[in-house]
Amino acid sequence: MEKFLEKLSKETALAFKEAGYDENLGKVGVSNRPDLCEYQCNGAMAGAKLYKKAPIMIANEVAEKLKESKAFSSVEVCPPGFINLNVSDDFLTEFVLEMSAANKYGVEEAAEKKMYMVDYGGPNVAKPLHVGHLRSAVIGESIKRIIRYMGHEAIGDIHLGDWGLQMGLVIAAIKEEQPDLVYFDENFDGEYPAEAPFTVGDLEEIYPKASAKSKVDAAFKDEAMACTKKLQDGDKGYRAIWKHIMKVSVDDLKKNYDNLNVNFELWKGESDVHDVIPEMVKYLKDGGFAYISEGALVVDVKEETDTKEIPPCMILKSDGASLYNTTDLATIMVRKRDYNPDYIVYVTDKRQELYFEQVFRCAKKTGLVDKKTELVHIGFGTVNGKDGKPFKTRDGGVMRLEYLVNDINEKMLEKISTGREMSKEEAESVSKMVALSAIKYGDLSNQASKDYIFDTERFMSFEGDTGPYLLYTVVRIKSILKKFVENGGNIDDCKVMSTISNASHKNLLMKITGYNDMIEGAFEEFAPHRICAYLYDLANVFNSFYHETKILAEENEELKKSYIALLKLTLGIAEDCMECLGFSAPDKM
Ligand code: ARG
After folding, report:
1. 317 CA to middle of ligand 1, Å?
2. Superfamily of domain 4-87
3. Which of 83, 122, 186, 553 is deepest in the core (most CB within 10 A)?
4. Would the CB of 161 count as within 6 Å of ligand 1?
5. Hey, which of 348, 362, 377 would you mutate to test ligand 1's pocket, going by the most ligand atoms within 8 Å of its Cβ?
């Protein structure tokens, strides 16, 4: 469906043309002076240069022509040549009526379906999730949903950090603690036990200890490297204990991501490409792309136009070991083979920007990925505490995501349980939904690349630019609609009509018209924060309308039905926005 601003622009373009000027000057935007007008066209200013004529003269001539347009209820020229516009009630409501009947409220689904792979989450096995992992999960999930909303195919891949030294460290630590385990017995040829010899709680203690120890104890570090090698070389016992680590850790990760309503189609990891690395290395060598530099195998990725130094992409270390690079490149190769995606979108900390630049250049240059495939890195900023420093626990430790989420769930349950008549179960389920909106909206409402302050109190507030405020608004709409039905009304019978009762009514209608434009923009820029900003504005204009208008008490039945249709539309749009963001509203709260 056409965008509302495009429709308005068509009217002004025609007026420019009729007045003898270039029709491209007739672009209309939302007014940046809402106190003066609703929309504005600044084309006369640009036209002044083109036609060497005072902008006010051009504006006056165009305004004269615009008087005939049915789109505007008022057209005013303001020095030096602004054309200030108010939209007519008929034109506005007609558009909204069309939106209500359209698929996805006028969002045009892509004519050509593309295939997107979204690489997000990226947790490391055996290490607990911390608050930094929140961003990748929440932003990536939302981007995936936005892509799908636009009618494309999207596959989310968690890309587990499940290979390399981090695994060797854990295995070395287990071996040191329990050297008699059968996994370490070279002569063992029976079945390995089905149960892991550790719990997830144990694992979470093992990794940080082992990591710290390897930094001060050279012998232990060597042992960890030897364990890594044995694992990668396919030692049966080491692979078996690694499988336990994977199972225990992945079960726990699934639980954590479930709690965030984050779902991955693929649970692939670095380990999955281990076996294709030799093939890739051969390909890079045979193609003449990779060469040995100071013992290591590298591919040059610098380009003439570079303004900063882009180091070569290292494929293998001098001891032949693979690196983070290696697995990412091999993963690209496998993704091409298995899915041939049009896009691969990576959502990681923005400090990995240079890294991805190298990987992308290497993949493109060497043809590991198809020419058509666009590789995109979305880098996000840091989650800070109120002191502006990276978010920590009270005693300065790394904040575990699980504890953070639990804490917010508990506080929200307390908030929801007080002063409301709700069963315990209901309060629990409602507070979980509200808490999730607090966390996700708190993150997503910031432009991804910026750092933000994780302010639990503010995020949980029912007022202001927060998830709970949005949910509260949605619940308000739901309950009005419910009452309308209880009073015998039929929502499907209601239609937006052309009567506009007051300024806030018009504001709500105007806000609604911007929906398809906004969603398409959010998709093109992979920018969930744009949906958040829209949703917040929508909630505000709705609440003003609600406070200034008798809805259910309206005596004119037709007008009441028109309000109900508008509420239904507002609700539908808000729910689609929330769906794209990855949270939803309860029926009451
Ligand atoms: N596991 C990595 C880390 O903790 C993040 C993985 C990001 N995705 C990727 N394809 N490299 O830094």
Report:
1. 19
2. Arginyl tRNA synthetase N-terminal domain (3.30.1360.70)
3. 83
4. yes
5. 348
55 lines ligand 1 (CB under 6 A): no
User: Which atom of ligand 1 is nearest to 331's Cα?
Assistant: 10
Cα 63 to the chain's mean position, in Å?
42
pLDDT tens digit sequence for 22-31:
999 999 999 9
Domain ranges of the chain: 4-87, 165-259
Ligand 1 nearest-atom number relative to CA 324: 11
The Cα-based distances of 476 to 259, 469, 472, 483, 569 in angstroms read 25, 11, 6, 11, 14
pLDDT tens for residues 157-191? Answer: 999 999 989 999 999 999 999 999 999 999 999 99
The DSSP code sequence of 443-463 is HHTS-TTS-EE--HHHHH-SS
Q: Is the CB of 328 under 6 A from ligand 1?
A: yes
pLDDT digits (tens, 9 = 90+) for 433-472: 999 999 999 999 999 999 999 999 999 999 999 999 999 9
> Which two three-digit tokens encode residue 93?
């409501």
What's the predicted TM-score (pTM) here?
A: 0.96
pLDDT value at position 397?
Answer: 80
Please indicate whether residue 135, judged by its CB atom, sits closer than 6 Å to ligand 1: no
**221 vs 270: CA distance, rounded Å:** 21
